[in-house]
């Protein structure tokens, strides 16, 4: 993409984000309630694992502070997805049913950008900040972990790949609305994916559930989205082939989801047809 076009898209997204913030501030009570629910959810999640770690020192090699970092990373990635993409993708089936997609397709701008990024859910931005806070706290409470600049750079690259990989899954599920019109059942798969992201891949090893771990590591690499960034930062022994697979899988899924989305649009029949 030429630099001028990239700057144009950035300026457009910033304008859309400001407009979304003004809409949120028009209903401050609703905004504060949603933030409170997210804070409560993170608190319950941390307390749940705190109770588990009061009975054991490690879970599949993850100690208390390493797992706290994992949960913080999960909350930050999930917060980014919900802030930037989730509300837009959930609204896509409504646009298909009502014919509002016609108006979107007439705009002189990339359809994928406008469909998946036109709204920003500011009420979930605190999730990203809380996730970052939990990660920083976990690192400070784990003196055995030594953090270098290269490690931070690798973590940021893996964190970005995690967001893009999750976005690719969400885009493919969203695109199915062109054929199914009402795709709530498929969107439930997203919540399945997000639930699997909340657990390290080691949880499914050495048990009857190991096929699930294999499928969602190598076929649909959902379980790499949080495990790889977290392991880069807090695990003393790390298998780098998983990091390479995360990068390769992200590039492949981005390309495939883009192709699938464009194919879905070609199958779309407008309200006037």
Q: What share of the residues does DSSP label as strand, in percent?
A: under 5%
Oligomer: single chain
Q: In sequence order, what are the helices and strands, one letter per element?
A: HHEEHHHHHHHHHH
Q: Largest sheet, if any?
A: 2 strands, antiparallel
What would the principal axes of the Cα set say about the shape? globular
Low-confidence stretches: none
- Overall pLDDT metric: 85
E-strand count: 2
Number of domains: 1
User: What is the CA-based Rg, rounded?
Assistant: 20 Å
Structural class category: mainly alpha
Number of helices: 12
How far is the N terminus from the C terminus? Answer: 33 Å
Strand order of the largest sheet: 1-2
Helix content: over 70%
Entry keywords:
about 270 residues, mainly alpha, globular
Structural description of this entry:
The chain has helices at 3-25, 28-53, 64-98, 101-105, 111-117, 125-140, 149-175, 177-180, 184-196, 210-219, 224-234, 240-267, and strands spanning 58-59, 62-63. It is mostly helical. Strand 1 (58-59) and strand 2 form a beta hairpin. The model has no long low-confidence stretch (mean pLDDT 85).
